[in-house]
Amino acid sequence: MSRPDLERLGAVYPRYLNAVVLHGLATAQAVGLGATDLYAIGALTFEGRMTSGELAAKTGLTTGATTRLIDRLEQRGLVRRVPDPADRRRVLVEAVEDEAVDLDDTLAPAREKLGAVFASCSPEQIAALTEHFERATPAFHEAIEAIRKAE
Amino acid sequence: MSRPDLERLGAVYPRYLNAVVLHGLATAQAVGLGATDLYAIGALTFEGRMTSGELAAKTGLTTGATTRLIDRLEQRGLVRRVPDPADRRRVLVEAVEDEAVDLDDTLAPAREKLGAVFASCSPEQIAALTEHFERATPAFHEAIEAIRKAE
DNA sequence: GGTAATATCTGCATGAAAGCAGAGAATGTT
DNA sequence: AACATTCTCTGCTTTCATGCAGATATTACC
């Protein structure tokens, strides 16, 4: 791979990441949630129900703070507490589908604009992007883990 | 473009974005900054000096809150206030290079892991990714603007 | 030159998020 | 059956980012 290509990527990529994060912050603020709360909803939506403790690990919060986080989300009807039948100390938390309406509205502009970006891609480009996202996602999660361990 | 391709992208992409945002949050926390503060540094680094008011517009904060944001960053030596010679009401803010050492360390894991992801791409894939990032960045910024207007 | 508009800063107040330490409930371990 | 461990929750406290409204300084307009 030629050097100019990599240089261009190196210039573009940080700005891109910055924009993604800022969009996340703006979204959270628009729906009246903290950024961590918004992430938690995402995690619950994408990965399904999990225990309070698992959510604490994912968010990097203490278990106490996580209880409060779940309280907040439950009060807004975005999330539901379900007792774990197998271990009654545990609480399973699951996202309430259909209740994230305003969140959906807030994400609409991004969906629209990025939809346009993707729509003008060739199938080969879509394939390349999909593969990248698939590989980058675990990379970010590993980096998160490394960051937290280093603290 | 075939439907299965788009479905796969639709499944992967939200998780990817979630991971990026979470990484941003974890990074901010690791260096002891708020998420907004971290974004501000990025904006100043990538776009160069700007006035306090411009920074307020970019972050979505009031000018008062932005003054405090600059105070915080200045106290840590990450940012510098420079009087605008053309208009002495204004204050230009610029990132202090070389001072973001711990931030660099915190970003190191992501750089490494994502570097590996990019390194195993063909030149064509790199080109597709770079082009995507270039087009997605303004799309996100437009979406941010739309979100804030809708509020 | 005098008044209005603009840009940043300050004081004050508030709300919200998170940590910590201990309580309560359930499970496992010997 | 007793004890230790695990999981979530609660009370309390602290920290901190942010808004708001007014103060101050500078520039623009008439």
From TrEMBL, chains A, B:
Source superkingdom: Bacteria
Alphabetized UniProt keyword annotations: DNA-binding
InterPro entries, alphabetized: AsnC-type_HTH_dom, HTH_MarR-typ, MarR/SlyA-like, WH-like_DNA-bd_sf, WH_DNA-bd_sf
Record Pfam families: MarR_2
Statement: the UniProt record of this protein carries the keyword DNA-binding: yes
GO BP annotations, alphabetical order: response to stress
One GO molecular-function entry: sequence-specific DNA binding
PROSITE patterns (UniProt xref): HTH_MARR_2
Domain HTH marR-type, residue spans: 1-138
PANTHER family, alphabetized: TRANSCRIPTIONAL REGULATOR, MARR FAMILY, TRANSCRIPTIONAL REGULATORY PROTEIN
Protein name (Swiss-Prot/TrEMBL): DNA-binding transcriptional regulator, MarR family
Source organism per UniProt: Glycomyces harbinensis
